[in-house]
Structures are given as structure tokens and as C-alpha cells.
Amino acid sequence: MTGAKLEIWKIAKRFQGIVAVDSISFVAEAGQVTGLIGPNGSGKTTTMNMITGLYPTDAGRITLDGAPLTGRDPHEVAAHGVARTFQNIRLLPEQSVLANVMLGTHLGHRQSILSVLARLPGVAREERDAKARCRVLLDELRIAHLADIPAGDLSYGDRRRVEIARALASRPRLLLLDEPAAGMNHAEKGRLGELIQQIRTSGITVLLIEHDIDLVSRVSDHIVCLNFGREIAEGTPAQVRASAAVIEAYLGRDEDA
Ligand code: ADP
Ligand code: MG
Q1: CA 46 to ligand 2 center in whole angstroms
Q2: DSSP 196-217
Q3: Cα 61 to Cα 11: distance, rounded to the nearest angstrom
Q4: Cα(first)–Cα(last) distance of the chain, in Å?
Q5: CB neighbourhood size of 195 (10 A)
Q6: What separation in Å is there between the alpha carbon of 167 and the centre of ligand 1?
Q7: What is the atom index within ligand 1 of the atom nearest the CA of 47?
Q8: Cβ atoms < 10 Å from Cβ of 218
Q9: For residue 48, which atom of ligand 1 is closest to its CA?
Q10: Based on CB atoms within 10 Å of each CB, which residue in 22, 39, 89, 216 is the most buried?
Q11: Per-residue pLDDT tens digits for 112-142
């Protein structure tokens, strides 16, 4: 698996007069973990929503290994090898963990709708292959024992892991994680940190939005910090943590930062 390089150049987004993202530029290098931090409302999720095509950009350019993502819809962006998790977990609670992860495989994309409906032999084979692949993935994420349990019955930390597994099932070149540690306890955060490092080792590029500054510093090669929709600092974790603008943005706001 090889990661792709994400380049963002002067992107902007406004909502009814509110400037959510105001000309942000940064690069997430291939195969590295880039942390995206900043106080609540600083434009992190909006940036991710523009990368994935959920929101059109008002201005600027986004490319993946040089191919433009700007102007594409979420399905097209996904087809370029971009997968994400959401700040609010989106799993099917009644469905098993394995079924949820299978949703990430884009089963049926290569087969026509009609052949899927007719359940032709090629479809069954593809489904078996995908299922086997997902079981391996669950094993790698150390949640194989949860495969047949309804996703809604899992602990918060395990649900977040399943969401990441589903994103990985599409074999992305770029993985976007929106606050994956939110609501996790200390032990769960520790395991999440290991998982992110494991994903990095596999070569996938990661863009990580995270509030826990210790976690994001531990796993990131590079950190970008936003405040009020603008970039206020960028560099190694140590450089960003030492930045006066970052310290002020965090201390100047509130306890949740
Ligand atoms: P963060 O993820 O850094 O907490 P967001 O990107 O979610 O911040 O939000 C940035 C700003 O944009 C906030 O002021 C937020 O209220 C606003 N915003 C985000 N999404 C929408 C939307 N769909 N409609 C209106 N305003 C939005
Ligand atoms: Mg957010």
C-alpha cells in the first residue's frame, strides 16, 4: 500500500457570512501522519469536508498526488483512494461489526447493479474475497473477536476502531480521521495511538484531527494548527507546541481545547 500526497492550496469556505475556513494551505506528505489541531470552531472539520467533497470549496485547490479533488463529489473522491471517519460515529448499530466493515469495501462497484441483483457467480466470489479481507483487517486491528456482535453493543472505543476498520477496508491512499479519540479513556487512547502508528507503517497517508495534544504529538510527523479558520502554526510537534500563537489560542479559549 502506498500513501498519496495531499496538497491544499488557499482553500476557503463561508457559511451565511461566517468565514469557517479562510485561505488555508498545507501539505500532508505521502506516508506520514499530519495532525490538524485548533480550538473548537477553528475550521478543522470543514477542511476535512472540503477534502472529501462533502462541501464544495469557495476558493482554492486540493490535489492528491497531483490529481485535482476540488469540484468532485464524495464518491469520486473516495474512488481516488480517500477514506474518512466522522466526528460523530456513523455505524449501522443493528448490523454486525463484520457487516459494517464490509460496507467499506465498495462491493458491487466493479459489478453492475443487475449482476448484483441476479447474484451471478462473480458477485459471490467477490463477496467471499471481501469478507475474507475484512476478517484479516479485523484481526490486524485486534477486534476479530467482535466480528459477529452488533456494532451498537460495542464500547465507545471499539466502535471508533470499527469505523477506522471500515475506512481501511476501502484500501485508501489517504485516511482522514476526525477526532478519533473523542470520548475515549486513557487505555483506549493508548491503543488508538498504536493503531495510527500501525496504519502509518503500512504506508497510508493520515490526516488526523485531534484535540488530545499529547496523542497528536506522539503520532504525528507534522502538525498544522488552525484558529478562526486560519493557519497559525505549522511544524514538528515540538515546534508547534512551543509556538506562542498556539499556546495563546489554546489558553485563550477554554478548557475543552
Ligand atoms: P472544528 O471542526 O474546528 O471544531 P468546524 O469546521 O466544524 O470547526 O466549524 C468551523 C465554523 O464553521 C464554525 O463556526 C461552525 O459553526 C461553522 N460551520 C461548520 N459547518 C457548518 C454548516 N454546515 N453550516 C453552517 N455553519 C457551519
Ligand atoms: Mg470538528
Answers
A1: 7
A2: HHHHHHTT-EEEEE-S-HHHHH
A3: 6
A4: 34
A5: 21
A6: 23
A7: 6
A8: 17
A9: 6
A10: 216
A11: 556 556 666 677 777 788 889 899 999 988 8
Who lines ligand 1 at CB under 6 A? 15, 18, 20, 38, 40-46
Nearest to residue 12, comparing CAs of 48, 20, 69, 28? Answer: 20
Q: What are phi and psi of 214, to 5 degrees?
A: -70, -45
Each residue's pLDDT, cut to its tens digit, for the chain (257 residues) gives 689 999 999 999 999 989 999 999 999 999 999 999 999 999 999 999 999 999 999 999 999 999 999 999 999 999 999 999 988 888 999 999 999 999 888 653 444 556 556 666 677 777 788 889 899 999 988 899 999 999 999 998 899 999 999 999 989 999 999 999 988 899 999 999 999 999 999 999 999 999 899 999 999 999 999 999 999 999 999 999 999 999 998 866 555 44
Q: Which residues, in sequence order, are bridge partners of residue 33?
A: 206
Q: What spacing in Å lies between the alpha carbon of 168 and ligand 2's midpoint?
A: 21
Ligand nearest to C-alpha 226: 1
For 209, the grid coordinates are 484531527
Question: Which domains are delineated in the chain?
Answer: 1-81+172-257 (3.40.50.300), 92-171 (no CATH)
Q: State how far Cα 254 lies from the chain centre.
A: 25
How many residues in total does the chain contain?
257
Residue whose Cα lies nearest atom 22 of ligand 1: it is: 15
